[in-house]
Structures are given as structure tokens and as C-alpha cells.
């Protein structure tokens, strides 16, 4: 059991390093020199949220020891805006600037393109959260209506709604052998739900 666990941890670490190399290559192609790959991944994970430095580490968005340094550099280079909380003046929260949001969109397209390549290579459906959310809203399904209400009010779609919509998609026939996920999971709650969804299925490719 211990050897399997250590093997899994090693695999995750190698995948993480490979992901950072892909991000670095994309930043180099775009001529972006004022941001490193680790900082870019932090920005991608923040997305449209507003978080404190503590929340970055608590949610697993950054696991290193020098998060304050990286946040400082992102603020200095105009990717991140830091403001004191209106509810607790001791708390400083950060959100993406317009420049940061553009970088987030760049990485989103990059990850989507990688997912598309994997799906084609393995002949599996690509399950994109954005695509299936839009489809659910267009169809007017119960979960789609919940998602539309959140979107129309400028809020993030709840974990429960996202998980429900993804679950419905993964139950379709073409996803039974496996699937490639794009944009899911984005939170710890979603990751735990995905674990629960796949453990009840037979062998598959994710």
C-alpha cells in the first residue's frame, strides 16, 4: 500500500512539473517575460475569485513556501490587485486585474487545446465545463436554470450545480469508456465529487 501511495505521489509531482513546462513554453511563445510559470498557474487558479494569501494555500492554489513573494511580484507587474477587506481591515484580499484576466483567458485556451489533443489521441469525448454549462442553460434543464440564475446575477455557479451538470454528462454512453475533463474540477468540493463519481465505475480513462 505504501509503495503504491509513493508511486502515485511521484506521478502527480511529475505531471505537475510537466504542466509547468507546458505553461512556460506558452508564455515564451507569447513573449511574456514579467511572469513565471508558477505565478501564471496561481493566476489561473484564482480566476474570477477574490482571495486572501491564506486562502491561496488553504485551497491548494499554491503549495510553496514563498507565496507572499509571488503575490508581491504579480501586484508589481499589474496582474493582481490587492485591497483591504471592507469587513476586516486586517485582511488583504487579491483579485485579477484586467491584465491578469487576459492571462487567465490565455491559459484557459491553452489547457482547452491540450485537452482537445488528448481527446482526439485517445478517441474519447472532451467534457468541457463551459460547454456543458452553456448547453444546460440553453436547454433550460433544472440545473441549467440554477446556473443561469447565478450567471445573470454575476455570481459563480455553485459547486452543486456544476457537479450535477458534469455528472449528467458523464452518464452518457460515449463517456462510459473514459473522458477528458476540461475545467473540472476547480475546487476541493468538485474534486471530492469527481472521486466519488469515478470510484463507482469500472476501469476507464480520465
Which ranges are low-confidence, i.e. pLDDT below 50, for 5 or more consecutive residues? Answer: none
Helix content: 55-70%
Number of helices: 9
**Widest beta sheet: strand line-up:** 1-3-2
Secondary-structure element order, N to C: HHEHHEEHEHHHEH
General form: globular
Structural class: mainly alpha
Tell how many strands the DSSP assignment holds: 5
The percentage of residues in β strands lies in 5-15%
* Biggest sheet overview: 3 strands, antiparallel
Rg, Cα atoms, Å: 18 Å
* Average pLDDT, all residues: 85
How far the N terminus sits from the C terminus, by CA atoms, comes to 22 Å
Features:
globular, two-stranded parallel ribbon, three-stranded antiparallel beta sheet, single chain, 206 residues
